[in-house]
């Protein structure tokens, strides 16, 4: 059988013309870091000042910016309350529910509205009975296509 054609951000099918491809994957375990793919570019940075740098980035992002976010370890303690409040203001329904080692992914827009049919957020809490990795929940992901004409 022929090898399946690879599409942007490892989608099974290509995004329609005029759309951006994205995939947000939370981390899982010590060795599986969070990954954010946008238009086939890996766009993840790690920092020691999660809250301060994130808030500065969000505030300085111009209107018309897509924001893609993911946690690895540990959003419940490394994201301070003021950072979580800013993310909640961007439309997150789950950011205030993050617990120790929860996996969380989120896509939002600054200054415009994403289509209702796009899954914008997903969370998976650590549960010692269900965790895939010792002490860590399974990674989660959201992916899809965003129309370019929204931006």
TrEMBL record:
Keyword ATP-binding tagged: no
The text of the family note is:
Belongs to the FAM3 family.
> Principal place where this protein is found?
secreted
Q: Signal sequence span per UniProt?
A: none
Instruction: Spell out the subcellular localization from the entry.
Output: Secreted
Q: Does the keyword Secreted apply?
A: yes
* Residue stretches making up the ILEI/PANDER domain: 47-111
Example of a GO MF term: carbohydrate binding
The organism encoding this protein is Formicarius rufipectus
Q: Name one GO cellular component term.
A: extracellular region
Q: Which InterPro entries does the record associate with it?
A: FAM3, ILEI/PANDER_dom
Q: Gene for this protein?
A: Fam3b
The record ties this protein, via PANTHER family, to: UNCHARACTERIZED FAM3 (PTHR14592)
**Which UniProt keywords are present, listed alphabetically?**
Disulfide bond, Lectin, Secreted, Signal
Could you tell me what this protein is called?
A: FAM3B protein
């Amino acid at each position: 059988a022929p090898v399946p054609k690879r599409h942007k951000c490892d989608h099974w099918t290509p995004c329609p013309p005029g759309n951006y491809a994205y995939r947000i994957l939370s981390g899982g375990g010590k060795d599986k870091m969070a990954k954010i793919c946008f238009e086939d570019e890996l766009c993840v940075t790690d920092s020691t000042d999660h809250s301060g740098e994130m808030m500065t980035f969000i505030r300085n992002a111009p209107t018309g910016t897509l924001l893609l976010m993911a946690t690895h370890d540990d959003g419940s303690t490394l994201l301070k309350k003021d950072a979580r409040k800013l993310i909640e203001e961007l439309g997150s329904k789950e950011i205030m529910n993050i617990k120790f080692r929860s996996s969380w992914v989120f896509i939002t827009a600054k200054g415009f509205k994403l289509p209702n049919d796009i899954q914008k957020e997903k969370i998976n809490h650590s549960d010692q009975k269900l965790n895939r990795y010792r002490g860590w929940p399974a990674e989660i992901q959201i992916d899809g296509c965003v129309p370019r004409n929204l931006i």
